[in-house]
Amino acid sequence: MVDYLVSNVKEVKMDRVPVNGSKNAFIQWLVTKENGANYAVRKFTLLKDGIIPMHIHKYQETVIVTKGKCKVCVSDKVYELREGDYIFINSNVKHAIINEGDQLEFFCIIDYSDDMRIITLDEDCNR
C-alpha cells in the first residue's frame, strides 16, 4: 500500500484484454488494490477492428473515451461514443465495445466486487 502514486501511462505494461473473443484489444492497469485503492483505473487501447465482445461481470464500471470512436452495446441498446463521451455500466449488465476507427483509447474505472470473473456471452453487438 502506498500513500500516493505518481507515474506515466507509457511506463505501465500493456496486456491483451482477458475477455474471451477479444481482438486487437489491450489493457493497462494504472491504479489498483495493490496500491491501496478501493477501485481500479485502467486504460484500454483497441486497434483497428478491435473488439471486446458481449460479456458481463459483477463489478460496476465507467468508460471514458479519450481518443477515437466506438459502438457500445449495453443491455439491448447501442450507442455511438466519441472522444469526451462516457458511459456508466452497472453490475451484471451485458455490454460490448467495438472500435469504429483507426485507434480507440478509453479509461475505465471499476470497483472491486467479491467476484471479479468476466463471463463472455454468445451474443453479437449487431445493431
UniProtKB/TrEMBL annotation:
<dbReference type="Pfam" id="PF07883">
    <property type="entry name" value="Cupin_2"/>
</dbReference>
<dbReference type="InterPro" id="IPR014710">
    <property type="entry name" value="RmlC-like_jellyroll"/>
</dbReference>
<dbReference type="GO" id="GO:0046872">
    <property type="term" value="F:metal ion binding"/>
</dbReference>
<feature type="domain" description="Cupin type-2">
    <location>
        <begin position="44"/>
        <end position="109"/>
    </location>
</feature>
<keyword id="KW-0479">Metal-binding</keyword>
<dbReference type="InterPro" id="IPR051610">
    <property type="entry name" value="GPI/OXD"/>
</dbReference>
<dbReference type="InterPro" id="IPR011051">
    <property type="entry name" value="RmlC_Cupin_sf"/>
</dbReference>
<protein>
    <recommendedName>
        <fullName>Cupin type-2 domain-containing protein</fullName>
    </recommendedName>
</protein>
<dbReference type="InterPro" id="IPR013096">
    <property type="entry name" value="Cupin_2"/>
</dbReference>
